[in-house]
Amino acid sequence: MSVDPPSVLYDSHGRPLEYVRLAVTDRCNLRCFYCMPEEGITYVPRQELLSYEEMERVVSVLAGLGVRKVRLTGGEPFVRRGLLPFIERLGQIPGIHDISLTTNGVLTAPHVPELVRLGVRSVNLSLDTLDRARFLRITRRDELPQVLDTFYALLDAGIRVKLNAVVMDGQNIEDLVPLAELTRELPVSVRFIEEMPFNGGSHAAMLPWNHVRIRQHLEQHFGPLLPVPTAPGATATDYAVTGHAGHIGIIAAYSRTFCGTCNRIRITAEGGLKTCLYDQGVLDVRALLRGGATDEELRTALTQAFRYRAANGFEAEQRRPVHQLSFESMSTIGG
Fold it and tell me: Which of 38, 94, 184, 258 ranks highest by number of CB atoms within 10 Å?
């Protein structure tokens, strides 16, 4: 899309910051119980969300600091109007050469041809089960056929697909093997994610299905999972299964085994900077933008925030104020 910036910014732990996850909205058309309560969450008033123009400006400044990849998240990105023209403008920012997105797939299928035209090469598709009744129970919406339409439309269009499944005790354990079986014939990465406490409330101190148990469960069916190389900063540990066209991935999102190579930051829909998923937000970017900050002042503030980045998710969690020990909804954080 554009030439690379001349340099890369490193945090105080020597990790490059090359990747921003940008939430374009906190709204979602599903009500997954591991993400939010059944009644939903109190959405941010629309005027408090970053405008597309404000997001473009932030990404432009970040590109000048070495960010090369943008992943658009939500909420659900496709519930916000004007998403595709926004993607096109992002692709014109010097230094940004990789734009991808995370979606639940309910509204995505009709837009796949345009995603191809815009150069979107990778989509993460949230899919926790292939069973329609369990999908309804988990998401509180009967939308599995639409999600599967998106899945096959993306594959047919040649877009790289990663299926993201949150592993939930007593909810979708019987789905792990059927989901992984998709890799037998299809060139897809099916990634199993440890459940996290970002459900808009409190959470147990430890979850019963960690990355070790997930791998052991899969190996009981498929035999040895063979580790394969992953890109720098990857959150998933990827595995090959002999004879399969795709890969299986496991993301230790709660165990936080990948923090030492993390190269990403997050901008929430209301303009909060998170240098770790588990922190409480370290900079109010919206206040700077609407307070008249110049690009140089914005660049300085971002650089300063990066210098105090936590070493890992456990340290970031320990820094949270006592009144923030109940975690936010993932919908407000950004996928």
Answer: 258
**E strands of 69-215, at which residues?**
69-73, 98-103, 122-126, 160-167, 189-194
Confidence of residue 102 (pLDDT cuts 50, 70, 90): very high
Please state, in angstroms and rounded to a whole number, the distance separating the CA atoms of residues 283 and 280.
10
Euclidean distance between CA atoms 219 and 211, whole angstroms: 12
What is the DSSP code string of 248-263? EEEE-TTTTTTGGG--
Whether 162 contacts 193, CB under 8 Å: no
Mutual angle of helices 52-64 and 295-307, in 10-degree steps: 60
Domain boundaries, the chain: 9-333
Pick the CATH number of 9-333 from 3.20.20.70, 3.40.50.2300, 3.30.565.10, 3.10.310.10: 3.20.20.70
Round to whole Å and give the CA distance between 286 and 314.
27
Contact 100, 142 (CB under 8 A): no
Residue 201's identity, in one-letter code, is G
The H-or-E segment that residue 227 falls in is strand 226-227
Determine the pLDDT at residue 157: 98
| 234: its two tokens | 């990857």
CA distances from 278 to 74, 75, 120, 145, 330 (A): 17, 17, 28, 33, 11
Tell me if 304 sits within 8 A of 273, measured CB to CB.
no
Peptide bond into 313 cis (omega under 30): no
Give the containing element (helix H, strand E) for 177. Answer: helix 176-185
Residue 90, class by beta-carbon neighbours within 10 Å (0-12 exposed, 13-18 middle, 19+ buried)? buried
pLDDT tens-digit readout, 188-246: 999 999 998 765 444 444 578 999 999 999 999 999 999 999 988 899 999 999 999 99
pTM, full prediction: 0.91
Range of weakest confidence among 1-10, 64-73, 250-259, 282-291:
1-10
Lowest-pLDDT choice from 22-36, 114-128, 169-183: 22-36
